[in-house]
């Protein structure tokens, strides 16, 4: 059940579903067991960056922990504090953020900006989020000093993330030894955006996903999760829990990076499990190729990120899920 004290901060549909748990019996195949033991996710040190270790992690796992990333721990904890504060605002106040460059969403936003296109409550992500396009953050005007502080923290965090993503991308391009045509497709810092998430706790339902399984469409995604945990990656046919480690970031290879690398790097499938007792927050950064850049690969038809994104949107609307890179395989049906 959602916390009573905080009830007015949740979207009305969540309050309703929480009161009648049977409606959210998902078909998300949560029966498969998930190991709660810590898994040996590779660790990459940004200060002493080894191309070999980085390459191995991207090829075998598609995900790694990043240490010595240069973000002060005090900034990370301030950010988490402010994310919690922001989500604890009333549902109406969060909806009002919509008028700023920020946008507030909940459930499964691709399908349902307003919650209208849900097929019952099946497959609904049990989360609320705030989308922050970093280049537009200076336009965020507020009279509320707490939100003003929040903007500053986000701006500072965004600068760190741009630096980290660029450093990692350049190292990956070196590690892959791409031919000039492949390396034409480059990371565009101005595409970077941050998503803040809150996954409400859900003690009354046994089987529930906060976010359904997916791969990210980005070049790289960088996740900063709190100590509650719940993020799982799919490897060797099983779901593995990614235990949170404080002051450590998690970097995912996205679909665009997989395509550029000729499938040498893997865009890792992942999902988020809801915690029964505690709500979880995370701060995720995504970055993409330059708009007009064509992805050239021996495995895929040439395509731009804009075309990819359009295809994902069409598939999500018509099929209810993302097909992803398979659509662009050289031998894919037209
Ligand atoms: O909240 C998380 O830890 C992961 C979120 C995620 O996978 C995404 O936004 O694509
Ligand atoms: Fe993701």
Automatic annotation (TrEMBL):
Natural source organism: Hibiscus syriacus (Rose of Sharon)
InterPro entries found in the cross-reference section: DIOX_N (IPR026992), IPNS-like_FE2OG_OXY (IPR044861), IPNS-like_sf (IPR027443), Iron_ascorbate_oxido_reductase (IPR050231), Oxoglu/Fe-dep_dioxygenase_dom (IPR005123)
Segments forming domain Fe2OG dioxygenase: 190-289
One Pfam family linked to the record: DIOX_N
GO molecular function: metal ion binding; oxidoreductase activity
Keyword DNA-binding: no
Family membership noted in the UniProt record: Belongs to the iron/ascorbate-dependent oxidoreductase family.
Keyword field: Iron, Metal-binding, Oxidoreductase
The protein's name in its UniProt record: Protein YLS7-like
Highest taxon of the lineage: Eukaryota
């Amino acid at each position: 059940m959602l916390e009573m004290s905080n009830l007015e901060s949740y979207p009305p549909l969540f309050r309703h579903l929480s009161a009648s748990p049977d409606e959210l019996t998902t078909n998300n195949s949560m029966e498969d067991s998930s190991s709660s033991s810590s898994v040996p996710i590779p660790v990459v040190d940004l200060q002493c960056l080894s191309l070999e270790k980085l390459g191995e992690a991207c090829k075998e796992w598609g995900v790694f922990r990043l240490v010595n990333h240069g973000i002060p721990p005090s900034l990370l904890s301030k950010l988490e504090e402010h994310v919690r504060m922001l989500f604890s605002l009333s549902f109406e106040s969060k909806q009002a953020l919509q008028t700023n460059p920020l946008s507030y969403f909940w459930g499964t936003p691709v399908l349902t900006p307003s919650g209208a296109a849900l097929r019952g409550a099946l497959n609904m992500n049990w989360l609320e989020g705030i989308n922050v396009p970093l280049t537009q953050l200076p336009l965020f005007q507020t009279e509320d000093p707490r939100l003003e502080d929040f903007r500053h923290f986000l701006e500072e965090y965004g600068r760190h993330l741009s630096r980290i993503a660029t450093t990692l991308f350049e190292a990956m391009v070196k590690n892959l030894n791409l031919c000039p045509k492949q390396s034409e497709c480059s990371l565009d810092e101005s595409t970077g955006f941050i998503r803040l998430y809150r996954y409400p706790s859900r003690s009354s339902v046994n089987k529930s996903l906060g976010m359904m399984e997916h791969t990210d469409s980005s070049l790289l995604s960088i996740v900063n999760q709190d100590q509650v945990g719940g993020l799982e990656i799919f490897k060797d046919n099983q779901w593995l829990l990614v235990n949170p480690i404080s002051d450590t970031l998690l970097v995912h290879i996205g679909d665009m990076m997989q395509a550029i690398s000729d499938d040498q790097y893997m865009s890792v499938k992942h999902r988020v499990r809801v915690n029964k007792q505690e709500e979880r927050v995370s701060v995720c950064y995504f970055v993409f190729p330059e708009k007009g850049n064509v992805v050239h690969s021996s495995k895929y038809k040439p395509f731009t990120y804009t075309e990819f994104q359009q295809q994902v949107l069409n598939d999500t609307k018509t099929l209810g899920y993302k097909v992803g890179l398979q659509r662009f395989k050289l031998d894919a049906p037209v």
